[in-house]
Amino acid sequence: MPVQQLVKAGPHNAGQDEGTPSVIARCLSNFRLEVDGQAVSHWRAGKSRALFQYLLVNRERFVHGDRLREVLWPEREDHRSSSLKVAVHGVRRVLNEFEDRDGFTLLHQDHGYVLRTNSAWVDIEEFQRAFDRGRNAWVAKDHDTAIAWFQRTADLYVGDFLSGESGDWINEQRQWMRGTALRALTALRTEALEREDWPAAMHWCRRALDVDPHHETTYQTLMMMHGELGELGRVLSWYEVCRHRLRTDLDVEPSERTERLLATLMRGRSRPPLTGQRP
């Protein structure tokens, strides 16, 4: 795919056309399953929605029924109830309503289930694919293509995985996707710094802090950029934000490197290099 088309790949935000899949599943930010642009809102069985979400993350992979019971009903010691069958029935009733769109297929086999995505577009699948292609292009030293794919990764990360929902498996998946987004944003920030495009680099820094407000390396980069621009008040401001968030939320102090950087910049001495190593 040409570099200039990477950012445009996937479903459009408004309207339906030939390039837009009829079935779309979104897990980044709030969960949403759409058919022909309309959200599916009726999940009849209590755990059917959660079951679909878990199978969606593990799409195309067999998941044993015992594992599904552990995930959906972690408080139960006896997993012999019929609750899983009820939840599966609820998922199938939803999928059957748009089976002519061939978006998903739920298969039962060997005491477990497999969710096939068929023609559906899934944001977390596209998110991981974009990052993997960016990483592969970077390793191949095709940095222009890599940056385009990392841009696509950042564009897809519109919020945390299943924002507002909880569960051990959700938290684990959320942390994994945050880390992936941060790696893409770090690459974009590094590339902007190498071009000495301070506005773009600051944009990617702010995006990184939206993902992880405790990412100390990002605060260091912001401090160095404002030091480069001679804006010592902004250097101090970003240091104070960093210190406050680390103290308040994590009960830790800024690292020795951050403290040394502040002292160096505030004294007007030569700064450390902005670009650093390529990620």
From TrEMBL:
Bacterial transcriptional activator domain ranges (all copies): 122-266
Gene3D superfamilies from the UniProt entry: Tetratricopeptide repeat domain, Winged helix-like DNA-binding domain superfamily/Winged helix DNA-binding domain
Domain of life of the organism encoding this protein: Bacteria
SUPFAM superfamilies associated with the record: C-terminal effector domain of the bipartite response regulators, TPR-like
Keyword annotations of the record: DNA-binding
InterPro entries membership: AfsR-DnrI-RedD_regulator, BTAD, OmpR/PhoB-type_DNA-bd, Sig_transdc_resp-reg_C-effctor, TPR-like_helical_dom_sf, WH-like_DNA-bd_sf
Pfam families linked to this entry: BTAD, Trans_reg_C
Coiled-coil intervals, chain numbering: none
Family, per entry: Belongs to the AfsR/DnrI/RedD regulatory family.
Name recorded for this polypeptide: BTAD domain-containing putative transcriptional regulator
Organism annotation: Streptosporangium vulgare
